Amino acid sequence: MSEIREIIKGCLNGNRKDQELLYRRHSAKLYAVCLQYSGNDDEAKDILQEGFIKIFENLQSYKFEGSFEGWMRRITVNTALEKYRCRNNLYKVEDIDQIAETDAEPDGEDYTGLEANDLLDIIRELPPKYRMVFNLYAIEGYSHKEISKMVNISEGTSKSNLSRARIILQRRVGSYTGIKKKIANG
Amino acid sequence: MADGRANIDLVFRNGLKDYEVLPPLDVWENIHPAIGKKRSYFPFLKAAAAVAVIVSMSFLAYRWGMEVSENRLNEMIAANQQPVIPAIYPAPSVSASGVINNRKEVSARGRQVAVETLNVEEHGSVAQNLPENTGINVTRRILEDREAMPGIQDPFATKYAKVTSPELEAVTYQVLQDNIEIPVMQRWSVSAIASPTYYSQISSSGNDLAKQVMESDQARASYTGGLALSYKISKRFSIQSGLYYSSMGQEVGGVNAYSGFQQYDNSKGDHNFELTTASGTVYTKNSDVFLNSYSVPERVQTYYNNDVFDPVKANLSYVSSTIYQDLSFLELPVLVRYKVIDRKMGVNLIGGVSYNFLVNNSVYAIMDGGRYPVGTTEGLNPMSLSSSVGMGMEYRLSQNFSFSLEPTFRYYLNTFNSGRESGIHPYSLGIFSGVAYKF
């Protein structure tokens, strides 16, 4: 804790080495968060870049209360949310029925054998509005009431989007595990 | 099925919990210059303040050293000084114009010098040959000292006996005030000043909303400039006033502005949204704007909240997530200046108050590089009072002109607004520089 305190102080004093050290230490974890919230790599890069600029700009407001990593994650998620809101009108939302037709049936509840990168690929294939609600609810732990304010949707829409996201994810996870099992059995 | 759905949440939550992916190398290359650029004015302010302090301290030390040396020298002179014996030391000389000058020091202290001037050619025209504007009081009298002092032979009487007239007329000049030219005190000065200013705020309120608002609102670099008039009361004290124009602004982050709301605006009130900021509450004057905040939702007060209106569904155009607040003031300062060091490079202490009159109040967002008007900050006091403390250097460029550099801290005694955020007191740090003309 004292080490990160020193690094933060160095960053606040404009020390380039400390700034780079902070970035090197935390960028990989935050980039995974960015990928989780974005549909493509360029968008994830933009979120990471803007998120880190905000982290450095607001470093003086971090009061060393609570996890520093959690604080950085919140800023990154908020940046992703801003991006989402900016581009929301541009997204063409995929219809749930079409998804249902093209996806394989869920393979029970056996989700073993899935790697983190598989999960990331699956979550990134979700339509943006489902992905955003699922991430905020299931991963970040926000309530529907909070999500409705953050994303500017009603609580009902938030619940509905989450439900649809879960259905899609279950089917795709089932599909992934089925394929993996087939590969494993030869 | 419900368990299964909850289970899928856990699969992703746990599966992605510690997942890391190395970002592309060029991301840091883009972050690095951006953060350097943003913070560049802070080191400048710190460096300028540090230079001012170091130079001021150096001159204080220099002056202290000089005073110590002078005191020691005076003590040494006093110890070695012999009793003063009044005497006349003739030192005759003949000028090119034929005027014979004979200066006689009558006091070893140098306090009083009697100068005898003998004009061989023109009796009684001594005054014409005196240097002008020397501040010397001239008294004219016939010296009879020579006859009155037995044992002392006047060399004039012997050496210049052949050219002397029957009666030599002599003039005594008495030099007052150490025989030094006394400059006329220049009491008035007019100066043009300018300063980059950094504003921030201190919250004495325990209100959670005020704290959250202060965390999200960021002050922008501001400036102050104007004319100052000062009057020297005494050698070291002067009083200063003038008229300054100061501009300050802040960025309100985490508030989304949308355009295209006018078609949905059915309200008959004068504004649709109220936005709480550190400087006061913003009322929207533009009926086309829609505001909301996802980070601090309570700061946006409106009938068109998330439950009744969705800007995304209504297909409003997103403008930005930052609102800019600009305030400008005309300042009337009343400052007292004390000259700590009165030399070519002087050091001043400054303190006083300023009356700040609000002259501009605008709130806007940036859209396509231009300003998209949002409204105004309401409840602002038309006049606020601030206190100033500073320490500055003054460098005398010539007899009439001087350059000054004064880091000044300013604290607002009353808040900008009298509303619910009244616990927030702004303060600022500025480095005033300017050129003064003395007369």
Describe what this molecule looks like in 3D.
The complex is a heterodimer of chains A (186) and B (439). By secondary structure, chain A is mainly alpha-helical. Chain A folds into 2 domains: 2-89, Orthogonal Bundle (Rna Polymerase Sigma Factor, Chain: A); 92-185, Arc Repressor Mutant, subunit A (Orthogonal Bundle). In chain A, 74% of the residues lie in helices and 0% in strands. Chain A is built from 9 helices and no strands. The radius of gyration of chain A is 19 Å and the shape is globular. Helix content of chain B is 19%, strand content 45%. Chain B has 6 helices and 18 strands. In chain B, the strands form 3 sheets. An 8-stranded antiparallel barrel of chain B has the order 6-7-8-13-14-16-17-18. Chains A and B meet through helix 2, helix 3, helix 4, helix 6 and helix 7 of A and helix 1 and helix 2 of B.
Q: How big a fraction of the residues of chain B is strand?
A: 35-45%
- pLDDT averaged residue by residue of chain A: 83
Characterize the largest beta sheet of chain A: strand count, sense, and whether it forms a barrel.
none
Might you state the CATH topology name of the largest domain in chain B?
Porin
| CA distance, first residue to last residue of chain B | 91 Å
What is the number of helices of chain A? 9
Largest β-sheet summary of chain B: 8 strands, antiparallel, barrel
Strand order in space, largest sheet of chain B: 6-7-8-13-14-16-17-18
Taken together, the total number of domains of chain A comes to 2
- CATH architecture of the largest domain in chain B, by name, is Beta Barrel
Overall, the morphology of chain B is elongated
What oligomeric state is this?
heterodimer
Please tally the β strands of chain B and state the result. 18
**CATH topology of the largest domain in chain A, anyone?**
Arc Repressor Mutant, subunit A
Termini separation of chain A comes to 49 Å
Strand and helix order of chain A: HHHHHHHHH
SSE ordering of chain B? HHHEEEEHHEEHEEEEEEEEEEEE
Briefly, what CATH class of the largest domain in chain A?
Answer: Mainly Alpha
- At the first level of CATH, the class of the largest domain in chain B is Mainly Beta
**How many individual β-strands of chain A?**
0
